[in-house]
Design a protein that fits this description.
Helices cover about 15% and strands about 30% of the residues. By secondary structure, the chain is of the alpha+beta class. The longest helix is centred in the middle third of the chain and has 11 residues, at about 45-55. The chain starts with a strand and ends with a strand. The mean pLDDT is about 95.
């Protein structure tokens, strides 16, 4: 079963621990449950998608929900 799909966009450029996150690094995430927040479960789907698409380490960059904007799509 799949939940909602979200478009996730970084709010600004962020450089931490040798990583770089930029507003152009947009991902689309489908949650495992129907929810209004793609970060509902410790951002697991978000972390996985950033690693898969951009090779970006969300944890190493010390990202938090406030670093991103998201909108429900579909």
């Amino acid at each position: 079963m799949q939940g909602n799909q979200f478009k996730i966009t970084p709010k600004r450029e962020k450089r931490v621990n040798g990583t770089l996150l930029t507003p152009s690094m947009v991902v689309f995430v489908t949650t495992k449950m129907f929810t209004g927040n793609p970060f509902y479960n410790g951002a697991q789907e978000v972390i996985e998608e950033y690693r898969r698409v951009w090779g970006f380490d969300y944890r190493k960059a010390k990202c938090v929900m406030g670093d991103f904007e998201w909108e429900k799509v579909g």
